[in-house]
Amino acid sequence: MIHQKLHPSLWADTSTPRISVDKLNTHTRADVVIVGAGITGSRTALELAEQGLAVIVLEAQEPGWGASGRTGGQVNPLAHDIPEKICSYLGEKAGMGVVNAYAKSADEVFSLIKKHKIECDAEQNGWLRVAHCNRAVKQLESMSSAWQKVGLDINYVEGNELHRLMGTKTYDTATLTPKGGSVQPLSYTRGLCSTAMRFGARVFGHSPVQAIERKGSQWLVKTESGSVDTEWVVFCTNGYTDNVLKGLQKTIVPLVSLQSATEPLPQEIYDEILPEGHTYADTRRVIFYGRKVKDRRVVFGTLGVSADCKRGSDIKRLYSGLAETFPQLKGIELTHKWGGYIAHTPDVLPHLHEPQPGILAGLGYNGRGVAMGTVMGRVIAERILGKSAEDLEIPVTNYSNAFLRHFSDVAVKLAVPTFEIMDAFERRFT
Ligand SMILES: Cc1cc2nc3c(=O)[nH]c(=O)nc-3n(C[C@H](O)[C@H](O)[C@H](O)COP(=O)(O)OP(=O)(O)OC[C@H]3O[C@@H](n4cnc5c(N)ncnc54)[C@H](O)[C@@H]3O)c2cc1C
């Protein structure tokens, strides 16, 4: 595997310092080997190292290199479906575990940050989910009443009040989830990882795991230039999942998500947009989402076709989406543009798998992994520390192949322009 530098992004330019890690060059042993040093892997490592387990994290590049260091940094405590539907997929007990995990996920992130004093510009000012068309208004109505019933603090905001909170008249209806918020995601990921290291976890970079083999009752994990004997191997590779663990890659569809950051804005325009520091995301299939950051910039994202964010149609969508949402930003330069992979699953839910004794995999956040990757890391740690699979908040499920995997990459890429046309039609006519 070619060693890649950290992708250029606003987060790379403004993060807490990079974590210096060596490549694994020896044979060693650990209680647990974690593959991937994003939010999920780093949270798992933190929880286990804090309990005194010998933890090794093997990262193909450097901590935070994957989606965790590239996200919009929105901490969104809501699933894509209503609780009833989640329970219909997973059964009542397991479904309600997941529902409660979502509802508490933002608080879990912010209290973890507080507990370990992680420097990451954390703000819990609330999340607006805005409707892009009338059909979506009905969808928001049913989401908010269903989630209210299970105790989530979620309200409705409309008309002038929403225009004021957004700093634009583009949307007329939204739900407001006050527990939502934002972080500087690369600083957050590095903070989780360095806290795990403070508790004794050993983290190696430029050490892609190439194979795992059964060795008696244990596992042997092999990299290019080293290996580890271990009781447990945990895959936290989400949208970057490869073929090392047979069958895992087919459970998700990697989709491209894009981000951009404006040049620093004139103060009066900056003050007008999202004046109370909310984050927002709309209901389009090819979602528009954004937030403000402290050096007078707006960060804006959408879905895309090419993860390097160099394709003309992707860049055009970033500029036009930003200007459609905030007309006062028309003509503003996007100084940073970047992208990465999210992991889509057939039921739009995250999954925890235990395909063999001693192997775990947690992935499939469908674009909401800042909060749910943090939760997943804790749940994985609880499993390793002895909690029975039946009592976990996120149930252990079998692999379920992602339908879109039957199609070629080209077909998946065609979905973005197709969905874009459907979104535009709905916005105009429904
Ligand atoms: C542009 C973008 C914007 C997003 N915006 C948001 C947002 O605002 N809010 C939100 O909640 N979510 C957002 N997401 C999704 C979120 O970032 C992810 O769900 C989350 O970061 C997943 O974390 P993770 O630790 O599971 O995986 P990742 O952070 O992707 O880390 C996986 C790691 O595994 C490593 N790896 C893979 N294979 C191997 C191997 N064989 N050996 C060793 N290492 C390996 C990779 O190098 C990578 O670093 C966004 C994603 C993107 C790309």
TrEMBL record:
<dbReference type="InterPro" id="IPR036188">
    <property type="entry name" value="FAD/NAD-bd_sf"/>
</dbReference>
<feature type="domain" description="FAD dependent oxidoreductase">
    <location>
        <begin position="31"/>
        <end position="383"/>
    </location>
</feature>
<dbReference type="GO" id="GO:0016491">
    <property type="term" value="F:oxidoreductase activity"/>
</dbReference>
<dbReference type="Pfam" id="PF01266">
    <property type="entry name" value="DAO"/>
</dbReference>
<protein>
    <submittedName>
        <fullName>FAD-binding oxidoreductase</fullName>
        <ecNumber>1.-.-.-</ecNumber>
    </submittedName>
</protein>
<keyword id="KW-0560">Oxidoreductase</keyword>
<dbReference type="InterPro" id="IPR006076">
    <property type="entry name" value="FAD-dep_OxRdtase"/>
</dbReference>
